[in-house]
Amino acid sequence: MLYALVDTADLVTREPALAAELGLSEATPNSLTPVEQDPLPDGPLEDALARIEWPPAVRGCALVQEVVTLPPEAEADLPDDDEAAYYAATHPLRQEIRLAVGVLRDGSRAAAARIRDQERATEDANLVVDADLAPALAEALLATLG
């Protein structure tokens, strides 16, 4: 999912009905509100992001996505066709990761990844927070801001 990050005080002033629906009556100075966007089209993420341009009122954006990774020994057998996603999603050595990357127009960025533990599918095993966790994705998001 893709989110526009807008100044909360500006949102309360410009869109009072939406702000009320979101439960926003007052804003902490310099706070941002994420506004969920329509789902991205199917296809490569970099292609979808390359077509996005935000208006000046958008101070930043964030992308949250589910990622499946495989160890190198499993990647060697990865099919080259439409079966690749199924292969990765059902492989016993897969790691399921929720990745969140956010950027602001001033170039600042934040990123976090929560790695699910396969042994305890309902519990999160690891959280990694590092602004440089997904540098290429952060750069692609920054490019959408002009």
Structural commentary:
The protein is α+β, with helices and mostly antiparallel strands and 146 residues long. The protein has one domain. The protein has a six-stranded antiparallel sheet. The protein starts with a strand and ends with a helix.
Q: Features of this protein?
A:
146 residues; alpha+beta; 6 helices; elongated
Please give a quick description of this structure.
The protein is of the alpha+beta class.
Task: Give the tally of structural domains.
Answer: 1
Low-confidence stretches: none
Percent of sequence in beta strands = 25-35%
Number of strands: 6
* Proportion of residues in helical segments: 25-40%
Please describe the topology of this protein.
Blueprint: E1 2-7, H1 8-14, H2 16-21, E2 32-36, H3 45-50, E3 58-69, H4 72-75, H5 84-90, E4 95-104, E5 109-116, E6 124-129, H6 135-144
Antiparallel strand pairs: 1-2, 1-3, 3-4, 4-5, 5-6
